[in-house]
Here is the input.
Amino acid sequence: MTINDRLIEVAKRAALAAGEAILEVYAQEFTIAQKSDRTPVTEADLASERIILAALEDAFPEIPILSEERVEKEGLPSLSLSQGAARFWAVDPLDGTREFIAKNGEFAVNIGLVENGRPTLGVVYGPARRILYAAHGPGTATRARDGGKPEPISARKPPAEGLVVAHSRSHGDSRRLADYLRDYPVKERLVCGSALKFGLLAAGDADLYPRFGPTMEWDTAAGQAILEAAGGRVLDIAGTPLLYGKPGFRNEGFIAWGRR
Here is the structure.
């Protein structure tokens, strides 16, 4: 087994185990707390993170981890590119906590590996939808549904009849999104929470995912790795590849495309 094979298998197992813990909380009444940035957090976020951190740290103690709830508790680590961090995990243990709370199934576990500023490996698992996207390099993107065997996936070229645009529920009516889409023929708009939107593009089920509001690197690293492995790309608002290890680990918007 190569190191890449071991990295992806550990990340997959961690995501699946974390998903089980999330669904245990999802099936019952749970309390909702508020973090310092006024976003919600539940026991599912924390349980998922405990499982993922334990798995990654046990298997790869030499690779530092940037994880959303750990950052809330301990602050941002010193992992920016300017400080020489060549490789780190970027983890969102429950991407789409609002979707989790709304019980609409549109939430995911995100585990991405960043190397020299680029996401090179990613796992995005939607436990409520039982769908697992994964990739660890060009041409390796897969999708597994309902616990089945991973199947190769590939982003598609924009169809002549118009684009299928994926966007977040909370950003679908923004004026900036409407202005941006005026330049493109749009056939359909798909509303979906969390990094599952990257999976839609990677599998050829959608063509474009614009996001003009800020996100954090743990929100996007796994999905970007999968989409790029499937032949797509993710650009910042200036039109250059979205990079990682930025000061504050913050993305100021991005445009994700299928194959162009």
Notes: The CA atoms of residues 162 and 187 lie 5 Å apart. The longest helix spans residues 3-26. The radius of gyration is 17 Å. The first strand starts at residue 32 and ends at 34.
